[in-house]
Amino acid sequence: MARVTPLPSSVLPAEQAALYERFASGYANFRGQAATLAHVPPALDGLYAMLLGLRAQATLPLRYVELAVVSVSKLNACPYCVAHHEPLLAVEGVPEDAIAVLPGFDHPAFDATDRLVIEYAGLVTQRAWGIRDEVFERLRGCFSQSQIVELTLRIALAGFFNRFNDALQVDDDLSPSSSPSAKETPDE
Fold first, then answer.
1. CA–CA distance from 28 to each of 87, 108, 131, 144 (Å)?
2. N or C: which end of the chain has fewer CB within 10 A?
């Protein structure tokens, strides 16, 4: 059960309510997370507008974003993020048995770039202070500098969302009864 009252988008000004709804139902079903972030509208604005902007820009292929996010979420044991991002990774053509081995990367469905993304996600999550220059040499062989920055940002944000969702016990959104309706009014 969520530790804070989920808020419907109707409690927000129109522009923020539209962003809430666009992210909560357009990116994936992140309604529970949006309903929690709605308590701090500038955070909802900044995080969701940035993530939607990055997705629209499509500088970094979604396959690599989702490989990184699922790997980080499994390392951090965040069931909310794993449940929400595994289906997105499947849409990117990663078979179920390959998804199951993450954050391991010993599966024939993973090519060298996939393996590098998974390895880098683990390093940023577990020991960002100790990443060797050799890893960045390999990253530069596969990605532009902008893509490396975005990949690092996405990995770090996944860690943030893992902790946010776990600490506040954000509802999983995967059942219709777990999301707030627009008619609910918060008890504040």
1. 9, 27, 32, 27
2. N
> Which pTM value belongs to this model?
0.87
Do residues 154 and 66 make contact, with C-beta atoms less than 8 angstroms apart? no
> Going from the N-terminus, what domains does the chain have, and what CATH number goes with each?
9-57 (no CATH), 62-168 (1.20.1290.10)
CA dihedral 53, 54, 55, 59 (to 10 degrees): 130
- pLDDT single digits (tens) 25-83: 876 678 889 999 999 999 999 999 999 999 999 999 999 999 999 999 999 999 989 99
Give the distance from CA 64 to its chain's centroid.
12
CA-wise closest residue to 82 among 98, 100, 107: 100
Listed in sequence order, the residues at least 6 apart from 84 whose beta carbon sits closer than 8 Å to its beta carbon are 28, 29, 30, 172, 173, 174
Residue burial 106-128, b: 16+ Cβ < 10 Å; e: rest: ebeebeebbbbbbbbbbbbbeee
